[in-house]
Amino acid sequence: MRQPPHPRHRSVRLALAPAVLISLTACSSAAAGGTPDAADGKAGRAAESPATVTVTPRGQGAEAGHPVKVTAHGGTLTSVTVTDDRGRTLKGSLEPKNMVWVSDRKAVPGASYTVRAATRTKGGTTGTAEAAFGTADASKVNKTDWRPGAGATVGVAQPVSLVFDNPVANKAEVEKQLRITTSNDTEGSWGWVRDWSGRDRVDWRPKTYWRPGTKVTLRAELNGTDSGTGGWFVRDYSTTFTIGPRQVVKVDLDRHRLTFERDGESVREIPVSGGTPGGDKRSWRGTAVLMAKEGTINMNSETVGLGDAYDKMVDQSMRLTWSGMYAHAAPWNSRYMGVANRSSGCIGMNSTDAAWVYGQVRVGDPFEIKGADTKGTVEAGNGFGAWNLSWAEWRERSALD
Asked: Which residues pair with 226 in a beta bridge?
């Protein structure tokens, strides 16, 4: 019996160029149980041609921000590996017919990539090849700051908040790269706001206050995303935090009372004095989220547009808005506690009560403030005012809904 001829083997290593097919190393073999003569009745039949492959992006200086796409022609892909110049692998998946592989993440600016692909034809011919491309550097870089910090335990009203250094024109593309996972499938939504600083900001808040004990993880897979005129993101961001006990601070400016609640039960009621009625010194109403416990700080009325009304050191300062509303100790105003609103916009307490509240509250606790004479509802970007919008109104601020 005539033995099949030894298959020919060509080793090819090609660099990727525009509009070029990658030639593969061919490994042809006769059909199982037969010979070349039996297959077509002609001796010395030529080996089957291997599949070819194209890859995008192509060449050097390619535009970043696109997935890597590998396509087989005349066969299927059996494996694809894409690595960057730092040795990191770009994960991806094959389409149902195994003819196209697409990376899960986008090619990032200023990186070099190596692509290795293996194919097989219907006749069983296999092949392999290697190609390379590089992306152009980012002409402008965008960055973000985020809250809360990793490992924090926060109150039930704390949103996930990202503030961007530069404007974000491609809000939908950016939002697509943001992932929130929770330990109990909490329902929530992203919403875009204008931060008090004037910068673009996107917050994620639950439909209702968080359930105590919830574990929350943010993964902002922004590397390789173009924010628009604000530039490219060149790194990812992540944080994980936990929701603490349900604590709500209720402030009734008409009754001049603050009620501290934990798990739905009233723990302590405290006399307070809010913002002076009838002018710029009125307090805000609505839900203000405790942003920071700042301790003893200097408060100067000129920084909040109130001229030279005051300039003093203030203890137990708890920030509620970027515009300067705090809850704090105000012993100089003690004669008005529980009687009248005579502050410059803050919620003042005597020193003993303020120290107690300061020791109980945590960042992310909501202060639910009501009163007939206020200067309006806390805006979404003035601190964390998202809770003053209905769920439907908040969802409308998503760039994807």
From this structure: 232
**What's the chain's average pLDDT?**
89
66 as an active site residue: the answer is no
- Tokens 């994807």 correspond to what residue? 400
Residue 194 has pLDDT above 70, yes or no: yes
Instruction: Decide: helix, strand or coil at residue 173.
Output: helix
Asked if residue 235 has pLDDT above 70, the reply is yes
Residues in contact with 342: Cβ distance below 8 Å, sequence separation at least 6, in sequence order: 273, 276, 333, 336
Can you tell me the distance from the alpha carbon of 128 to that of 2, in angstroms, rounded to the nearest whole number?
30
pLDDT > 70 fraction of the chain, expressed in percent and rounded = 86
Looking at domain 247-387, its CATH architecture is Beta Barrel (2.40)
CATH of 7-31+47-137, one of 3.40.50.2300, 2.60.40.3780, 3.40.190.170, 2.30.36.70: 2.60.40.3780
Q: What is the rounded end-to-end Cα distance, in angstroms, of the chain?
A: 70
Rounded Cα–Cα distance for residues 16 and 118 (Å)? 15
Residue range 144-244, CATH number: 2.60.40.3710
346 in catalytic set: yes
Upstream peptide bond of 159 is cis (omega within 30 degrees of 0): no
Question: Active site residue: 27, 73, 256, 346, which one?
Answer: 346
Q: If we measure between CA atoms, which residue out of 143, 146, 302 comes closest to residue 235?
A: 143
Residues 6+ apart with CB under 8 A from 194: 200, 201, 381
Tell me where in the chain the CATH 2.60.40.3780 domain(s) lie: 7-31+47-137
Using 50, 70 and 90 to split pLDDT, how confident is the model at 26?
A: very low
Question: How would DSSP label each residue in 310-372?
Answer: -EEEEEEEEE--TTS-EEEE-GGGGGGTTT---BSSSEEE-HHHHHHHHHH--TT-EEEEE-S
**pTM of the full predicted structure?**
0.85
